[in-house]
Design brief:
Blueprint: H1 10-13, H2 28-31, H3 52-56, E1 91-93, E2 100-104, E3 108-113, E4 118-124, E5 140-144, E6 149-151, H4 154-162, E7 169-172, H5 181-189, E8 193-194, H6 200-208, E9 212-215, E10 228-230, H7 239-243, H8 245-250, H9 256-278, E11 285-292, E12 303-306, H10 310-318, E13 322-323, E14 331-332, H11 335-342, E15 347-350, H12 358-365, H13 376-379, E16 383-385, E17 389-390, H14 401-404, H15 406-417, E18 432-433, E19 441-442, H16 485-498
Parallel strand pairs: 4-5, 6-7, 6-9, 7-8, 9-10, 11-13, 11-15, 15-16, 17-19
Antiparallel strand pairs: 1-2, 2-3, 3-4, 11-12, 12-14, 16-18
Helix pairs in contact: 9-15
The structure holds 2-acetamido-2-deoxy-beta-D-glucopyranose (6 copies).
Organism: Linnemannia hyalina
Protein name: Periplasmic binding protein
Length: about 500
């Protein structure tokens, strides 16, 4: 796709949605590459009006500025804000994420993707990188903070925007599937470019201009070995693990402090939702299921699958429900056998890629409207799909914003299984009810309200601790960086708009 690549329709882009999942043992991690990310915002005005970069950078040692007159003998710690781990001051493992860790030295930090078994040495701009001989072969050295980034997965886009670093995002792959309104706008204006596919010269130039290329962790393109960083958020086995990759991304921007405030807030909000949902006496049975039509990818054999993915299981249990992934098997080749297995499931989250309404759902599962009384999920009017937030090409935010916003995803799952644990007027983000005909919410560049590229994209969750079950959703998420007068003012403004 050439430089100004929007709007892109599936027929002309060459990067249209893939209707079959690429073969991969990491499943969704690769699948998510095709899905773009993120969101601007309508309701959530409060969070982060203050740029994390401004809050943390200027004036701090190192921080957002390059060091001048570096002298190692001065023994200065250039990273006063570290990802914290009370247990150790060496390998600083993070609270939830299982697949990365960070270690700090005076003028550099070593960020390790433990899934990809790869170290990234991030040294403060203006200081001298440590000797490569001190590290494993293949270790990558990057001067930080980075100011130009390429995102090969649209999942990365969400993390970068939540840190308020859209200004650093220069190149995006599969840009036709980006859900973020402001990144869509940036693409339209040419401030962000879609990664070129056909012209290899241009593609190499685009990569050359980037300080870092955030990839999926498993493939590195020729010529980009020195700057491609593998990210594994979609493989980290839990919603809070996934969100905590905000801290991984933050190390490249020296934004550890704001990232930790953000993940702390997501954790707290998540745990509050979890407590509210688990106070309910019933445990509805939930299955995350999908149908795959016969094709050359599956020996022309139709199949129905019940997902056993860890993060879905954790979300289900934390939403006060029971996770169902089959009794003796989770993949079926006849709809009769599959339907017998899910007969008593109370809530279905339909992950079938194609087909977006109840009619398509019934057809793909081998059901008709006459079956309503025989299947609990139909009688309960409880069939949901993950495409509640999409771009005009059906680029799903489920694969981007939802990876980072663990608390908001749990809120959506609770809305599906225990709606009375949330305010009556709470809106869906990703999980829309297709029995009730809830529509896809289509995000375009016109939904970009935060035109300042350093305004962090706020989390979509409501604030659990102040929610009122009588119908008002409480104020927007409390992710404010600092209790400044500005934040207070905007909080009042948001309250005035919401109540
Ligand atoms: C790293 O690579 C060099 C040559 O490419 C080799 O001599 C050296 O043994 C390697 N070191 C390790 C630790 O694998
Ligand atoms: C490929 O890109 C290069 C660099 O932008 C440009 O000079 C060249 O004309 C392009 N080639 C084609 C065939 O468009
Ligand atoms: C990558 O580079 C190596 C040698 O540098 C070459 O053998 C290989 O074919 C290249 N791969 C691609 C996909 O261009
Ligand atoms: C594909 O399907 C045919 C007939 O349905 C069967 O004989 C064959 O074993 C299948 N192949 C694989 C790899 O499953
Ligand atoms: C269901 O998931 C669990 C892991 O959560 C797994 O151990 C079990 O084998 C799965 N059951 C089926 C039938 O796939
Ligand atoms: C996007 O903007 C349109 C108006 O341009 C509005 O109607 C719609 O509600 C917005 N969608 C979301 C999800 O904010």
């Amino acid at each position: 796709m050439a430089i100004q690549s929007f709007p892109i329709t599936p027929s002309t882009s060459g990067k249209s949605p893939r209707w079959t999942q690429p073969v991969s043992f990491y499943g969704q991690s690769v699948f998510s590459k095709y899905y773009a990310h993120s969101i601007c915002v309508f309701l959530l005005l409060v969070p982060f009006l203050i740029s994390p970069a401004a809050a943390q950078g200027q004036g701090a040692i190192g921080g957002q500025n390059c060091v001048t007159n570096y002298n190692a003998a001065d023994n200065v710690d250039y990273f006063p804000s570290k990802i914290s781990d009370p247990g150790s001051d060496q390998e600083r493992v993070v609270d939830n994420a299982a697949l990365f860790k960070v270690r700090y030295a005076n003028n550099y930090k070593v960020v390790t993707n433990t899934a990809g078994k790869k170290d990234y040495v991030l040294y403060q701009c203006g200081t001298t990188a440590p000797a490569a001989s001190e590290f494993a072969n293949g270790t990558i050295f990057i001067s930080v903070p980075v100011t130009a980034a390429a995102a090969l997965t649209t999942t990365s886009v969400a993390f970068i925007e939540m840190l308020g670093k859209r200004s650093a995002l220069k190149v995006v792959d599969t840009e036709g599937l980006v859900s973020s309104p402001c990144v869509q706008l940036g693409l339209e204006k040419g401030e962000i470019v879609g990664l070129e596919d056909a012209n290899k010269t241009l593609r190499a130039e685009q990569f050359k201009g980037a300080d870092v290329i955030f990839g999926d962790g498993f493939s590195v393109e020729n010529g980009t070995e020195s700057k491609t960083v593998g990210t594994s958020e979609v493989s980290d086995p839990g919603p809070l693990n996934r969100a905590e990759w905000l801290e991984f991304y933050s190390t490249f921007f020296n934004l550890e402090e704001s990232a930790q405030k953000l993940t702390g807030s997501i954790n707290n909000n998540y745990n509050c939702f979890k407590a509210a949902a688990n106070a309910k006496a019933t445990k509805p049975i939930v299955a995350w299921s999908s149908y795959v039509a016969p094709s050359s990818y599956n020996n022309n054999t139709a199949s129905w699958t019940l997902s056993g993915a860890d993060y879905k299981k954790i979300l289900t249990v934390d939403a006060g429900a029971a996770f169902y992934n089959g009794t003796d098997k989770n993949t079926f080749t006849t709809s009769a056998e599959f339907l017998a297995s899910i007969k008593d499931v109370d809530v279905i989250i339909d992950e079938t890629f194609a087909g977006s309404d109840l009619t398509a759902f019934l057809t793909s599962y081998g059901l008709t409207t006459a079956d309503t009384a025989n299947y609990k999920f139909l009688a309960n009017k409880a069939v949901f799909r993950e495409d509640g937030l999409v771009n005009p090409n059906d680029g799903r935010d489920w694969f981007s914003g939802a990876v980072a916003m663990g608390d908001a995803v749990l809120q959506d799952v609770i809305r599906a299984v225990h709606p009375d644990a949330l305010p009556k007027d709470v809106k869906y983000n990703w999980l829309r009810n297709i029995v009730n005909g809830e529509p896809k919410q289509v995000l375009t560049s016109s939904n970009c309200t935060a035109t300042d590229a350093s305004t962090p994209v706020p989390d979509r969750a409501i604030v659990c601790s102040t929610m009122k079950l009588d119908g008002s959703s409480g104020s927007a998420a409390n992710k404010a960086v600092a209790g400044s007068a500005l934040t207070a003012f905007v909080g009042l403004l948001a309250a005035a708009l919401l109540f």
